[in-house]
Write a structure and sequence with these properties.
single chain, 200 residues, alpha+beta, Glutaredoxin, 7-stranded mixed beta sheet, two-stranded antiparallel ribbon, 6 helices, 9 strands
């Protein structure tokens, strides 16, 4: 079992020598420190005692575009903005064609009217690899005790069709609503779908 200190060190070392990790439900969420679009440090421990949603993002991915062009992701960010800390994470490496500089990302967020609490820039990929984030989007819900409550797909419609958002079972919504009601998360993990995270 890895200690908090071990996780903090692991997240800080270069991606090239970092082992692809995981964040299974019921286990402590890997700690991290990463910068946001304003260049300010963001630490998971800053949100201790609160529910945190991690959304892996790459606006160049058609699966991500599906959820933003439909307004689905922004609606969820706004709907749960008062109850949870919604952190959008971009682990796209700077050498990849999909990489966007902070100014471009800020412009895209404004264009879509997105409402995450913070947008985290993880271009070394250390945070994504610590969590085992495989796709964009790949969703994680962390409970108030710091344990992973959900890990997987945003919903059950594995397509890029905007119309498929309607009627889809949203696993993140289900998890948050069950947690809000004091119930255990009935579906704590699913297989994520989307584009592969563009690590180095």
């Amino acid at each position: 079992m890895r200690t908090l200190a071990t996780l903090l060190v692991a997240v800080a070392i270069p991606t090239a020598v970092f082992a692809f990790g995981s964040a299974p439900p019921g286990q402590p969420a890997p700690a991290f420190t990463v910068t946001d679009l304003d260049g300010k440090a963001a630490r998971l421990e800053d949100y201790k005692g609160r529910i945190v949603v991690l959304e892996w993002n790459n606006f160049g991915c058609p699966f991500v575009q599906k959820h933003y062009r439909s307004g689905n992701m922004q609606a969820l960010q706004k709907r749960y903005g008062n109850d949870v800390v919604w952190l959008t994470v971009n682990s796209t490496n700077a050498s990849n064609a999909d990489y966007q500089k902070p100014a471009a990302l800020q412009s895209t967020l404004r264009e879509f009217g997105a409402h995450p609490a913070r947008y985290l820039v993880d271009d070394p990929g250390a945070v994504g690899m610590a969590y085992g984030a495989k796709t964009t989007p790949h969703m994680f819900v962390i409970d108030a005790s710091g344990k992973v409550a959900y890990n997987g797909a945003i919903d059950d419609r594995r397509s890029t069709d905007v119309e498929d958002v309607k009627g889809a079972k949203n696993y993140v919504v289900a998890a948050l609503e069950e947690m809000k009601a004091g119930k255990p998360v009935s579906t704590p993990s699913t297989v994520p779908y989307g584009c592969s995270v563009k690590y180095r």
